[in-house]
Amino acid sequence: MTNGIDTHCPYCALQCGMRLEIAEPGSPVPVIVRGRDFPVNRGGLCQKGWTSAALLNSPERLTTPLIRRDGRLEPASWEEAYAEIVQRVTAIKAEHGADGLAVFGGGGLTNEKAYTLGKFARVALGTRYIDYNGRFCMSSAAAAGNRSFGIDRGLPFPVTDLATAGVIVLLGSNVADTMPPFVQHLAGARAHGGLVVTDPRRSATAQLTENGGGIHLQLLPGTDLTLLLGLTHLVIAQQGVDTEYVQARVNGYPDVLSSVAEWWPERTEEHTGVPASQLREVADLLVRNSPRAGGPGVFLLTGRGAEQHAHGTDTVQAAINLALLLGLPGQRGSGYGCLTGQGNGQGGREHGQKSDQLPGYRMIADPAARAHVAAVWGIDPDSLPGPGVPAVELLARLGTADGPRGLFVHGSNLVVSAPNASVVEQRLRSLDLLVVCDLVLSETARLADVVLPITQWAEEDGTMTNLEGRVLRRKRALAPPEGVRDELQVLTVLAQLLDSRGHFSADSNVVFNELSLASAGGKADYGGIDHERLDHEAIYWPCPTPEHPGTPRLFETSFPTPDGRATMWPVKAVGVADDVRPKAPLYLITGRVLPHYQSGAQTRRVAELRDAEDYAYVQLHPLTAQRLGIEEGSYVEVTSARGHAVAPARLSSDLRLDTVFMPFHFPGDQRANTLTTDATDPISGMPEYKVCAVSVRRAHGYPFPMRSAG
Ligand SMILES: Nc1nc2c(c(=O)[nH]1)N[C@H]1C(S)=C(S)[C@@H](COP(=O)(O)OP(=O)(O)OC[C@H]3O[C@@H](n4cnc5c(=O)[nH]c(N)nc54)[C@H](O)[C@@H]3O)O[C@H]1N2
Ligand SMILES: Nc1nc2c(c(=O)[nH]1)N[C@H]1C(S)=C(S)[C@@H](COP(=O)(O)OP(=O)(O)OC[C@H]3O[C@@H](n4cnc5c(=O)[nH]c(N)nc54)[C@H](O)[C@@H]3O)O[C@H]1N2
Ligand code: SF4
Ligand SMILES: [Mo]
Prior knowledge:
Elements: E1 5-8, E2 17-22, E3 31-35, H1 47-50, E4 66-69, E5 72-75, H2 78-96, E6 101-105, H3 111-125, E7 130-132, H4 139-149, E8 167-171, H5 175-178, H6 187-191, E9 195-198, H7 204-207, E10 214-217, H8 224-237, H9 243-249, E11 250-251, H10 253-259, H11 265-272, H12 276-289, E12 298-302, H13 304-307, H14 312-325, E13 335-338, H15 345-348, E14 357-358, E15 362-363, H16 367-377, H17 391-397, E16 406-410, H18 414-417, H19 421-429, E17 433-438, E18 450-453, E19 462-465, E20 470-474, H20 487-497, H21 508-519, H22 531-536, E21 539-540, E22 566-567, E23 586-591, H23 607-612, E24 618-620, H24 622-628, E25 635-640, E26 643-651, E27 659-663, E28 692-698
Parallel strand pairs: 6-7, 6-16, 8-9, 8-12, 9-10, 11-22, 12-13, 16-17, 17-18, 23-27, 24-26
Antiparallel strand pairs: 1-2, 2-3, 4-5, 4-18, 14-15, 19-20, 20-21, 23-28, 25-26, 25-28
This protein binds ligand MGD (2 copies), iron/sulfur cluster and molybdenum atom.
């Protein structure tokens, strides 16, 4: 191969275009990664993308199955590993029925794997218990999108549309660290002074608003919903409502109108900490730049900072209400969108990993959906299980008297990333069977009874759907090391050994064609897409027929709802689930740092990324630190009602005085998720990762002076 292979990054939902060239013999990495000109990144990559090849030949990579014997994980053959799983699955099924088993998937899996995993759970295992880590990530935005627009596609427009906007509001998103090449799409709004960022922290993205770029609203954690109600109040007061648009395209306006009456600016300031003058400034920007005023356009975008709350769905709803009132969705150069997170966070939620869904975004409780999918799968619709339960509830049921006794984990490192993680760890330990399929011995894999080593992105074929709803080809550039197997093959062999009904295939092309049939006619319609088309062009779904060009922009003429109109829903401001009190007087907020991805299972194993950031830290304001007797670098203990974590202090005036920040990428004592609450959103099931109440003090028994955290 001389010119290399065009593919996409293994990590986040931006899915930057890459070109992989086979390296010279003796090179430290098997492929050379080059940035490729694809619209989302235009050749740029972040540090994680540039270093993504390092894990392909890392000594930390798993190359043989492991089975727990006498308490220890020991190397085994594939035949032994499969036999162990089949024997134990059969025993659990005999004693507890099919719902004695459960599956936990991931938003990093290709569409083909996500689809096969959902089918494996419902058909081969026969269980209703399947859910995935997208519940931690996308579920609140998905729920609000479905209820207002009748569809859930993170961005209903290409990211390149952002270029012409006068105003872009980023609600709780830190793209400068989480999707660095995305920052180029903010240039136009920054040049207009129109970038607005809500974040309790002066994040790298909040800093982009400085020097005339826009406005940083440094709100109290958990108050985005209130802030949005206050902005809606002001837009209405300033006659900014696009009444023509609302009359023609939107239901529910009168209820929203009355629901925001009480949120005048000074009251909003009292609840959010954002000065009324700033609120007025932002409302003015929104109104002036809106299409109705003949402005260059406005986008409202939400990230996890606004969504990962026990009222995340209502927060996104408030953003959608504001967008609809300004007349943004469906107008060229304006809109509302959610910035999807994981590599296949979008596709991962469309093909049947969600507890209540079948492929194509069909609902599992809907008889017509069951009949359609059962026909594609060659099974009796009555044999399909009903809806399961969302991730947090599923994890809480593991190993309990009437909960699942066996769990398959494909693409998540729950021990580090699940909320209230000590309890999750206990639940995992209480299982009769834990099977983990992974590339590395993650913290979760360490607890497994059987570990199955699989291929990585550059060694596999398939498709991903990026944050724009654009379906892309992931292409195989090199052969996997001996000993590892393709995950589709693993699921196919297991299904066969379990005497499953239906047909499973290890060929990603065959799987995609079946997925396309299963999704046809559904909301996320991939019916007209196949691998060959994707080899030439990435296609936006819905794409119902081979002749259809795909749909870069949704909502241009109508919304996919029964009456073609979007619906606003009035929402109420609600406090955080675990609020500050004398014993826990500070807010802990959590999030990401540039060099690490998620639970860190992959990026903590890449030397360059580990060198960039090898430890968790607790970021706090110098005045807060002074009051608590904490110095730069001193180890601090952060305690919540659930437990404590320890990490070195980093003093920074980027924080509010009442708030501390921890990244969640680290395990053990440094694990932020020991502290987080598992309170969830009543509609989406998303946990409140972003805020809980803590106390902070100097840690005793840790060395001092400390080495720096970097
Ligand atoms: N480097 C890196 N990039 C990633 C990932 C990664 O792990 N590492 N993961 C990918 C995935 S799966 C996702 S979901 C995305 C996430 O992308 P983002 O949503 O950008 O990331 P987070 O850091 O989780 O949260 C964003 C910001 O929310 C702020 N925040 C905390 N509490 C609140 C609050 O109450 N209100 C508001 N407004 N803000 C708050 C935090 O200070 C943080 O700066 O990133 C993707 N890209
Ligand atoms: N406190 C706090 N906690 C959070 C968040 C937060 O903001 N704050 N964010 C949440 C969010 S948005 C997310 S998305 C989650 C993510 O957290 P996790 O669900 O833990 O996601 P990853 O760390 O990406 O875990 C993926 C695992 O699968 C492996 N893997 C990679 N590719 C594949 C594959 O193709 N197949 C299989 N079988 N395995 C693979 C990796 O090696 C890794 O061990 O974390 C959540 N946790
Ligand atoms: S921004 Fe996301 S997709 Fe792009 S290189 Fe970085 S991790 Fe990869
Ligand atoms: Mo995520």
